[in-house]
Design brief:
D-Maltodextrin-Binding Protein, domain 2; 8-stranded mixed sheet; globular; disordered N terminus
């Protein structure tokens, strides 16, 4: 152990003198044995950290000498930025929350682990346990490293298959084969339509099933509730991406010849009229968004229609607890509206929520292979169906494991869906799995997402004309051709 500590003291001095940003808090001697501590970055708030602490405790009890340091970084973008920064400094986490477009940039470092070597392993978990005197004991448990065929079949297959390298446009460039598994799903969410049932009933309306139905209701809703805003949308980027998917306009592609489809003449000609229509609705007071409101629009939804609130709010199923109005009005949850195309309704809805990505070779450790294996064993704790059920109950996210719904506590949770908004959100989103879609992931897809959100805000507020907003966003993404 003395050699390990002396090595990290030297490394800390190098970090301090060179100005490299690391996970150290300042330039003091580190207090963490990085060779036996798994560094995990997430975006979890306090309540979810409490749930995750149970998985950490189980892991540490199973594997003496190993620890997990769970370090939330803020939101998903903050996790991405911190991982990117740390990869550049060579001092990255072992495990992190991720979205596919984040991983598309991480793989350029070639430090993303292909998880197949652990998923398919027949070994039992084993590691070297070193005592304070430096004596080494090889520890072996009865816990298998890999998954059986039955366990793999228990994953929601759409979620599981998102991790294949074929879904990342540039993976082969960095040495990852088509069957490489770059991520595993943790929990997933989708977007739902939360609605004020009391207000709709008072106006004689059913919940809107299409966008045309929703806009047709707005005039009467505003007439009945003059201070209300009919629709709030929490994610401008999701709105743009979803409308492109539902209408077949073209958003992005993994094809390197043209990644940014929304900037082509054909796509712009289809998207621009919709953006102009949305600007007109914004001018009438029918719409607000998170950026415009400067907060999640759930805060408006729970106020009630009479007090300037929303009638409809589109937000994550994982944020259902924030949509609860209490006794202010009767609420309901439905799928987001669909778009009518060629006489049929397209109800595609985005799949989102964190996956898990593992990194190797950081922090100067000498036991990288051993640490990778133990990091995978911690992943298995997070993906255990019983833990998945507990996390889903606490968060509103959907489990990555099918058998989580069979856990008695989860069954009790769903049974309360008529009165528990979190349970109702889980119930509705579970029924939408065949409607889910994901966007292609490539180096630049994260930028495209940011620009998609900007397009919506600029056009709603009239700060840019639709064609100009689309052209500027395309240019900001580094589009290959100037349309």
């Amino acid at each position: 152990m003395k050699k390990i500590w002396s090595k990290f003291v030297v490394f800390a001095l190098v970090v301090c003198l060179s100005g490299v940003v690391s996970v150290f808090a300042g330039c003091n001697t580190p207090t963490v044995d990085y060779e036996h501590t798994i560094i995990f970055y997430s975006s979890q708030g306090d309540s979810l950290q409490t749930i995750t602490s149970n998985a950490i405790a189980r892991f540490e009890a199973k594997y003496p000498g190993w620890k997990v340091e769970h370090t939330p970084q803020g939101g998903y973008d903050e996790v991405r930025d911190k991982v990117t920064q740390d990869l550049q400094g060579g001092f990255q986490p072992d495990l992190a929350y991720c979205y596919p477009d984040h991983v598309a940039s991480y793989i350029q470092t070639q430090k993303v682990v292909d998880l197949n070597k652990y998923i398919n392993s027949n070994e039992n978990a084993h590691w070297n346990l070193t005592d304070e005197e430096g004596n080494v004991t090889v520890k072996t448990t009865e816990y298998k490293v890999g998954y059986s065929a039955e366990e793999l079949a228990d994953f929601v297959q759409m979620y599981y298959k998102e991790g294949y390298a074929t879904n990342f446009g540039n993976a082969a460039t960095y040495g990852y084969g088509d069957n490489a598994m770059l991520t595993l799903p943790f929990v997933k969410s989708t977007e739902l339509l939360y609605y004020n049932k009391s207000a709709l009933d008072a106006c004689g309306f059913e919940v809107a099933k299409t966008w045309d139905e929703l806009w047709a209701q707005c005039a009467k809703l505003v007439e009945r509730y003059p201070s209300c805003t009919p629709l709030g949308y929490d994610s401008e980027a999701n709105w743009f991406i979803t409308m492109c998917e539902q209408n077949g306009w073209g958003y992005t592609s993994a094809d390197s010849s043209e990644n940014y489809l929304f900037g082509t003449p054909e796509s712009k000609a289809k998207i621009a009229p919709w953006l102009e229509e949305m600007h007109n609705y914004y001018e009438k007071g029918y719409i607000t968004t998170q950026t415009i409101y400067n907060a999640y629009t759930s805060g408006l939804f729970i106020k009630g229609a009479e007090d300037g609130g929303l009638i409809y709010c589109i937000g994550s199923s994982g944020g259902a607890s924030h949509q609860n109005p209490g006794d202010t009005f009767k609420w309901g949850i439905a799928p987001i509206p669909g778009s009518e195309v060629n006489g049929e309704i397209n109800n595609s809805v985005i799949s989102q929520g964190p996956s898990l990505v593992m990194f190797t070779g950081g922090n100067g450790v000498t036991n990288a292979s051993e640490k990778e294996m133990m990091t995978f064993m911690f992943i298995k704790e997070l993906l255990d169906p019983t833990f998945q059920a507990a996390f889903s109950i606490g968060s509103g996210y959907n489990s990555a494991r099918l058998s989580a719904v069979d856990v008695p506590e989860y069954q009790e949770h769903l049974a309360a869906a008529d009165t528990n908004i979190v349970a109702k959100a889980a119930q509705v989103s579970e029924q939408l799995r065949d409607k889910f879609f994901v966007s292609p992931a490539f180096n630049g897809s994260s930028t495209a997402r940011t620009q998609a959100g900007n397009i919506i805000v600029y056009c709603l507020k009239g700060e840019k004309q639709p064609m100009d907003a689309l052209a500027d966003a395309y240019q900001n993404c580094g589009g290959k051709n100037q349309y």
